[in-house]
Amino acid sequence: QVQLQQWGAGLLKPSETLSLTCAVYGGSFSGYYWSWIRQPPGKGLEWIGEINYSGSTNYNPSLKSRVTISVHTSKSQFSLKLSSVTAADTAVYYCARETYAMGVWGQGTTVTVSS
Amino acid sequence: QSALTQPASVSGSPGQSITISCTGTSSDVGDYNYVSWYQQHPGKAPKLMIYEVSNRPSGVSNRFSGSKSGNTASLTISGLQAEDEADYYCSSYTGSDTLVFGGGTKVTVL
Predict the structure, then answer these.
(1) How many whole angstroms separate alpha carbon B36 and alpha carbon B38?
(2) What is the helix (H) or strand (E) element at residue A46, kind and residue range?
(3) Which of A89, B17, B70, B94 could form a disulfide with A85 if both were Cys (CB 3.0 to 4.6 A apart)?
(4) A100, B34: Cβ pair inside 8 Å?
(5) What is the pLDDT of residues A63-83, one digit of tens each?
(6) How far apart are the C-alpha atoms of A65 and A82, rounded to whole Å?
(7) Chain A residue nearest residue B44, CA to CA
(8) What digits encode the pLDDT tens for the residues B23-43?
(9) Quick check: B78 and B17 in contact, CB under 8 A?
(10) Nearest to B38, CA basis, from A83, A87, A103, A11
(11) Which of A45, A103, A108 is opposite residue B101, by nearest beta carbon?
């Protein structure tokens, strides 16, 4: 039974860098893409980007200039960095295991950007 | 990339069937059989209900079914139950190696 556990800072100031990590337990790390998705308060889901075990990435064009997703294969972890955050980046951030569909999700991390 | 288009809300009585549409373009829904559907209850992470247009993951009720015609995908919930009241999102792979979500549909059980 694959489980994803995510963590990271929950309160940021404008212009800071958001940093989240997601650990994969109980399943294979290779053979899948690993995604980050966010959901602003009261709004819908937004796909941020993905990475596979070899480090190949794809990003949402609207966020590409600020996003970096990296993988730490030896730890079965992957991370998200989003630079120059503003209040518009306030959201619940989820990690997920993906093969064109997000079949396993992390518990979500609430990130608030406020001065 | 633009979000897929879903109705804001759909409602039905217990036992009835409802259908949620998800309209994209020939660059996403219309060109790939990688449409998926998610159910999200308040305060919870989304749950995969349908993948690759019409496939149900293990453990998902067969009351949920998916289909696609042209640029529009659909999720049908038959035998509507109170526990089905939730937000539903569609998603599609795009030709740009990205994924895109719909805006979400709130399902109300009357």
Answers:
(1) 7
(2) strand A46-52
(3) A89
(4) yes
(5) 999 999 999 999 999 999 999
(6) 9
(7) A107
(8) 999 999 999 999 999 999 999
(9) yes
(10) A103
(11) A45
Q: What is the pLDDT of residue A31?
A: 86
Average pLDDT over residues A98-110: 95
Does the structure show a pLDDT above 80 at B1?
no
CA distance B62 to A24: 29
Alpha helices of A4-88 — where are they, by DSSP H? none
Location of structure tokens 């149900």: B56
Cα angle B100, A107, A38 (rounded to 5 degrees) comes to 30
Place of tokens 């294979």: A28
Report yes or no: A98 at the B interface, CB cutoff 8 Å.
yes
Q: Which residue has the tokens 């995908």?
A: B73
d(CA A98, CA B66): 19
Give the count of beta carbons closer than 10 Å to the beta carbon of residue A39.
22
Average pLDDT over residues B68-90: 98
pLDDT tens track for A36-57: 999 999 999 999 999 999 999 9
